[in-house]
Design goal:
154 residues; mainly alpha; two-stranded parallel sheet; 64% helix
Length: 154
């Protein structure tokens, strides 16, 4: 909580408390007198107290919305930083794989499938986990009529 939101919360608490006291006083005051003229004055105090309570509620909501917006922006930044780091790690991994001397990208046995599968997968794909898969290159899988998996996107 920042200093501004702490101040706004305290102001809202005081304003709401005063408004509640005014409404309670107006209720007690107007119920204790039979004269309509005096009840109207107490009614005006009750309206002012209601305005104070309403203003305090709006102030609390505005303060909470600002806090949520700040936290959302912070989390969005953390998520984007994590995504950028993952993309960098994947790019480094791919560039490291391509640097294998004498290996052509299509012939490397980096993808897996079974003879009955329609798609070929990366070795860690959850759709290929627990199955008796055989490694082969992309060209081999495509010659067998398989297409890339839509989950692991090889």
């Amino acid at each position: 909580m920042t200093a501004d939101s702490g101040l706004a919360s305290r102001v809202a608490l005081v304003l709401g408390g005063l408004g509640a006291v005014a409404v309670l006083s107006a209720w007690v005051g107007s119920s204790s007198t039979p004269l309509v003229g005096r009840q109207a004055a107490w009614g005006a105090l009750g309206v002012a107290g209601t305005f104070g309570v309403t203003a305090a509620s709006f102030l609390w909501v505005a303060t909470a919305r600002q806090a949520v917006a700040r936290r959302t922006a912070e989390l969005r930044g953390l998520i984007l930083a994590g995504v950028a780091q993952l993309r960098t790690e994947r790019a480094e991994k791919r560039s490291g794989d391509a640097a294998v001397p004498g290996a052509r990208p299509d012939d490397r046995p980096e993808f897996v499938a079974t003879t009955t599968m329609v798609h070929y997968h990366r070795p860690g794909c959850r759709l290929a986990d627990g199955k008796a898969v055989e490694p082969a290159g992309r060209a081999d899988h495509e010659r067998a009529g398989r297409t890339p998996c839509g989950v692991c996107e090889p």
